[in-house]
User: Fold this.
Amino acid sequence: MFSLLSSFTALLKWPLRLFVNFKIVPDHAVSELALDVNRPIFYVCHTESASDVATLRRVCHKLALPDPLQPLTLAGQQLPRTLFLEKPHSVIGGRTKTRALQQGQALLKVHLEHPELNAQLVPVAILWGRAPGKENSIKWLLGEANAPHWLAKLLIVLISGRHTLVRLSKAVSLAQMATQFGAETETAHKLLRMSRFHFYRQRLAATGPKLVNRSQLFNALLAAPALKRAIEDEAKTKKISVTAARQEARKLLQEIAADYRESTLRVGDRVLSWLWKKLYSGIKVNNADLLRDLAQKGHEIVYVPCHRSHMDYLLLSYVIYQQGLVPPHIAAGINLNFWPAGTIFRRGGAFFIRRSFTGNKLYAAVFREYLSQLFSKGYSVKYYSEGGRSRTGRLLQPKTGMLAMTVQSMLRGIDRPVTLVPVYLGYEHVMEVNTYVNELQGSGKKKESISGVFKAIRNLRDYGYGYVNFGQPIYLNQYLTQQVSDWKTGINPLEVQKPNWLNPVVAKLANQVMQHINQAAALNATNLIALSLLATDKHILTREELVQQLDFYLSLQRKVPYHQHVSLPEGDANSLINHAVQLQKIQSSTDGFGELISMSAEHAVLSSYYRNNILHLFMLPSLLAGAIMHHRSISFTQLLVYIEQLYPLLRAELFLYVSSLHTYCQELLQHLTAQGLIELKDELYRAAPQQSRQYFMLSLLAHNAEDTLQRYAIVLNLILRPGPISRVDLEKDAQQLAQRLLNLHGIIAPEYYDKGLFITLVNALKEAGISQTDSNNMVCSTAKLEQLAQTVNTLLRNDILQSLHSIMPQHNAP
Assistant:
């Protein structure tokens, strides 16, 4: 029989090349799956099909893996290299069984007798097209049948062959399985059952659940008990008929709901593949194996990325699709629902959400019911917890509405584990960055339109690299159990639950999501060079100085990484500089003494955005450097006191999380000492000699904390002024004072215009017990605030501190 299959496979070899294009996942399968080509390799496939085998042979040839039709001799036995779980149906009649059971048992017996062989069994899923099909559909012919007959397979290849996905998975150790379970028939059955379930999960992960007819979905939602009550309440409140209120709910569903179509994804994949080649030098993806593993285990995945650009919507969905997974349904702002983009986005899986639900209970009920339905059907979902795009490059304070509705959906009962996947999205160039600075300085936000899209297309050029880093997942079931041990007792499929613990638990969860996003940050040429040049007065360094500083920053993250998920760029410091010059982010010039690397005033303002993407990675090292530079000598204990005083504010603003400040600071100081930037003598730290290269490098590092310390000093010293101050006046005065410092000292920090940062700081002071409010709701100082102000003022530059004194003469700052 195998020789017959081989003959058909050989016959189809060249015709299939005309009709079949395939995508291999993972991209570097041999290395990513840790396959050992020096050990025996077997394959297990779902269907014994000549077209499948012909495609597999091409894949194996491309990956330099053994031919699946070439038998392998183990311990004197000749064994087929590929096991097939199913035979295809016949055009007329049923189908026969494969010899997979006997072959699997033979493999196990060989390994039981000769465990040193340790062969690898690699599951290979071959998916012809990625259409999920529709519920109650009879169109099984186009891919919904697991093992179609030859005529059906011919049509499938002709229609979907150019969209074939070949997914290789981690190999099963046959020696380990034989040792653990033996080589009995039941063990072989277990091996095949595991394989069948594996392929089912693979298909579900790649295509998603079957689609529901849109009108049927609306009818089901409108019949849900919670939404029926909301419709009745709407009728009573507005004094209209239930029929009219129901019609209004249907209109809201039409405004919100996605109209997902696999054909749109196929076209979008081609368009975006072309677009990324035009826009970017490449797309760097990190930690995608975590994602594929979650999908394979059947988790309900909720993607929670940061929001830098409108490109985020397209880039993340594209990367997920390229990883062999079905793209998620995306919560998109209603501002993007303009023609024709809105229609395209909706067919690509976007559902639209208004900025606020306030005052519209029916809208809130409709949206909540729709989101719950997505979860119950098994669709992955993506939403931006920041609510909007960051204008400063820092993460925004999270909005908790979508997370709360996710938890509420769990309280209605979801039979799969729900997992949040934080995603860091980074760019070497954000197309909207110019408008962000203008908006921060007071210009109005422009409404999205088709003309804006055409304008962006006209300006297409090479924007460097894009980065998609998947962060540490948050297993929501486990998280809720840790926070509220009896949360499952409140599950009610028919009711929307809002227990007393919901808001505080969700607020803590939102903060953890943001921490995990920042832990997966991507270092690149643009943000590292911005970090270095913006620390200089004139935004200029010699090439040698810049190379030294970049090498130091890279070594810092290699030796004392902020987190294991932080990704570092490829290449050395010189290649990063050359790349940034090519992107026109910096300029290179030469005089009689050598090469200078500089940044124009305009680029300096824009580059602060990219520096802020990674500022959190270097904030604690920068504070340590600054504290050491401001003292002739200082002990580790005093340095730790400074860090512990500032940490609550930094944690709130930059979403910092360090498991042990004591250990992390010790390791940082050891590295700074090893690099020669500081010296340790008699248990006291001091800076390197002032005329040395290392002292200059230390000063550049310390500068990265200056803008943050200046904003802290502004707010702290305002609170310390005699007389009460309201929170509103404090936030307003702080922003005005910050802009005064910008003008006086030429500070390049557009975030000084961001009122939100001052609001976050005032909140953090109160939550940490550093400030308090009196009976008239006025902000008051405390002993802790006075101590913190003294620390911050000690770490400030003298000229900045003098300006604060002159602007606020009524208060003698410590």
